[in-house]
Amino acid sequence: MTQSSLRPIALTSGDPAGVGPEITRAAWSALKDELSFFVIGDPRHFPSAIEISAPAEAPAAMADGVPLLPLSFAAPVIPGQPDHANAAGVIASIEQSVAFAKNGSASAVCTNPISKQVLIEGAGFPHPGHTEFLAELGGVDRSVMMLTAPELSVVPVTIHIPLEQVKTALTAALLEDTIRITRAALIRDFGLTAPRIAIAGLNPHAGEGGVMGREEITLIEPVLQKLRAEGMEITAPLPADTMFHPAARASYDVAVCMYHDQALIPIKTLNFSAGVNVTLGLPFIRTSPDHGTAFGIAGQSIADATSLIEALRRARDMAQARALYDAEH
């Protein structure tokens, strides 16, 4: 699968009052000779963009500016001042991007940051965030969040819940499902034939033989034994405080962690700027920069576009890997 044979990536508008428009232009400047994408949004929100009428026109338009498939929003934009009137447009941009990915017009979906508060208050958005909405659009019951950077890839089993709820939410079924979805994606979308999966323990020192908690013995290890019997390469539950140094990271392809901060603190410490959010388990590829709308700096031309640039590159690489895998299977 060559770059020239790939369909362009569909990039959503995100909240246009955030940094989305400026990092989109910066990403175009960095990637215009490397890959093709198009943004779905209002021309008023993306000054100097090149309007196109179909995704197929994006590769040719990349030479002149950000290719933009017009989508009318209700209101103009003042950077840093989100307008609830534009919530429906933000949602429509996501829906259109997914439709293009599902019908083959786009090779992947990359999403600019949204404000859940704006979407809830402006359009009654019923989802906790992007990931759950995309799972609904993709027709799947569950998807998995991965954060990936050159130094490390992590998957949290439980995500945006209070720490006191983790012990109840962490079940054998959830852990098994997360590992299966993660491994399948590493094979199909990352080109790994035999993924090496490291598992973090829930408790300090991975429970230290039951002295500091027994979840590793009673819940986690039985799941891992079942999956190892199927041929998966999976570690025993590891102490989280010793599994992220360089030598440890070299021994695995992804770390599956039990809760949000256990996964995200190490990756954001290692590479705060270049981390990419990837949703696994969808029938289409989706990536996103690993940051929010940054209303406080929007319109000041100081936003760092590195994460969006890497998200677009990751989307391209995953699309190539999936196309090659599907052709061979």
Automatic annotation (TrEMBL):
> So, what pathway does this thing act in?
Cofactor biosynthesis; pyridoxine 5'-phosphate biosynthesis; pyridoxine 5'-phosphate from D-erythrose 4-phosphate: step 4/5
Q: What is its main location?
A: cytoplasm
Biological process terms from the Gene Ontology for this record are:
pyridoxal phosphate biosynthetic process; pyridoxine biosynthetic process
Report the InterPro entries cross-referenced here.
PdxA (IPR037510), PdxA_fam (IPR005255)
| Keywords of the record | Cobalt, Cytoplasm, Magnesium, Metal-binding, NAD, NADP, Oxidoreductase, Pyridoxine biosynthesis, Zinc
Instruction: Specify the domain of life of the species encoding this protein.
Output: Bacteria
| GO terms under cellular component | cytoplasm
How and how many cofactors are bound, per the record note? Answer: Binds 1 divalent metal cation per subunit. Can use ions such as Zn(2+), Mg(2+) or Co(2+).
* Cofactors that this protein relies on: Zn(2+); Mg(2+); Co(2+)
Which compartments is it annotated to reside in?
Answer: Cytoplasm
NCBIfam families, A to Z: pdxA, PRK05312.1
Q: How does it assemble?
A: Homodimer.
Additional note from the record: The active site is located at the dimer interface.
Q: HAMAP family in the record, alphabetically?
A: PdxA (MF_00536)
Q: What is this protein called?
A: 4-hydroxythreonine-4-phosphate dehydrogenase
Organism name? Neptunicoccus cionae
Could you read off the lineage of the organism from its UniProt record?
Bacteria, Pseudomonadati, Pseudomonadota, Alphaproteobacteria, Rhodobacterales
The record's gene field reads pdxA
